[in-house]
Design brief:
InterPro entries: Acetolactate_a_deCO2ase (IPR005128), Chorismate_II_sf (IPR036263), CM_dom_sf (IPR036979), CM_II_prokaryot (IPR002701). The protein is an alpha+beta fold and 370 residues long. Helices cover 33% and strands 32% of the residues. A hairpin with a 2-residue loop joins strand 1 (3-9) and strand 2 (12-17).
Length: 370
């Protein structure tokens, strides 16, 4: 693919690639034929409403794409399709590659051909990530397949336990049965979509992501996150089709019911208020853990600095040089003030900090004379 635009944003690097091959020798294999096309097996509204029976063999899903997500037969966890392989995360957290003969109750897949790449340069929570994506994906009625790879300070997922055959309890009524998993310093991939409102019922509108760890042994439906270093790739889709189930349960399913609130509850893993509170706790814990780690590093660095100061003190004693070197301290202080300003630190704070550090260095050097 050829480069056609490079756009610079304050918080990200954005590269847009041509969606069309530059040469005439275009491959005519199935991946090219179905380029930018979304295939949906089943009806999203039916899954939300309680139709969990397995219908679509995983092997057949692979004929329609190498990227996507879905639900296993009888709701036994979550599915993720990545690099042409299909993985299942069960409610126990166990994650593994499935065989082609097993069945899905619902799935969305496409052949992934990214035309947009984004490299954010700051950490983001889920709301910040979605805001960033919205600022780039300005077509509110567009269909987008989204791949996010890298490291996450924290990532919370969930999976549902299996149901009995022909059990049709609506998914929103089973939220208390969810099993949640929190992964800290996680590395892996998020596979997902942002779909427009007009696709509600057949699919699930808005953002929807499933996670797969780099080791392929952890995963689930993404509930919340805090990014660390990530890269985002986006495939702009331009068509879709739906394969409807050919079952008696589907033929008699009531699609007239408004399931908008049920869909929202299922997507976020619970009622809005409770989930928001949980997200705040998770985010605060992550940042406090990070502060604890940084504080430990600060103390260790101060210890190393004093060790260097004592070595200099010994040199001064041998060469009969005075302990206090005002010109040297002023040079160090001014350099620190300039660097601090670039990081948003006030001159007053830097001056007070370095005066305390300098005083301790002098004390340590004077102690060598005793």
């Amino acid at each position: 693919m050829r480069l056609i635009h490079i756009l610079a944003f304050p918080v990200l690097a954005l590269i847009i690639l041509s969606a069309r091959p530059a040469g005439l020798n275009q491959s005519h294999n199935k991946a090219d034929t179905l380029k930018h096309h979304l295939y949906t097996a089943g009806i999203g509204g039916a899954l939300i409403g309680g139709l969990y029976d397995g219908i679509y063999p995983y092997g057949s899903l692979k004929q329609h794409g190498n990227f996507g997500l879905g639900a296993p037969a009888l709701l036994d966890g979550e599915l993720i399709i990545f690099n042409g392989k299909i993985y299942q995360t069960q409610y126990t957290g166990k994650t593994f590659e499935v065989n082609d003969k097993q069945l899905a109750s619902f799935a969305m897949v496409n052949y992934f051909h990214p035309s947009i790449k984004i490299t954010p340069n700051k950490a983001m929570d889920k709301a910040g990530l979605f805001h960033l994506l919205d600022s780039v994906l300005t077509n509110v009625n567009g269909m987008y397949a989204i791949h996010i790879s890298g490291t996450f300070s924290t990532l919370k997922t969930r999976a549902f336990p299996p149901v009995k055959e022909h059990q049709h309890t609506p998914l929103a009524d089973m939220l208390s049965l969810q099993h949640f998993f929190t992964y800290n310093s996680a590395q892996g991939d998020l596979v997902g979509y942002r779909l427009p409102v007009f696709m509600d019922n057949t699919n699930i509108s808005g953002y929807h992501f499933h996670f797969l760890s780099a080791q392929k042994n952890e995963g689930g439906h993404m509930i919340d996150l805090l990014t660390d270093h990530i890269q985002i790739e986006i495939d702009v889709l331009d068509s879709y089709n739906v394969q409807v189930p050919a079952t008696s349960d589907y033929e008699h399913f009531d699609f007239k019911k408004n399931r908008e609130e049920d869909i929202k509850s299922v997507e976020r893993g619970g009622k809005a208020q409770a989930q928001t509170q949980g997200s705040k706790v998770d985010t605060m814990t992550v940042y406090r853990d990070k502060i604890d780690q940084l504080d430990k590093q600060i103390v260790q660095l101060l210890g190393e600095r004093m060790e260097a100061a004592r070595a200099i003190g010994t040199y001064k004693m041998v060469h009969k040089i005075g302990v206090v070197q005002s010109n040297r301290f002023n040079d160090v202080l001014q350099r620190a003030i300039a660097e601090g300003k670039q990081l948003g630190l006030s001159e007053e704070f830097i001056k007070k900090l370095y005066e305390d550090v300098h005083a301790e260095s002098v004390r340590q050097q004077e102690a060598l004379k005793q």
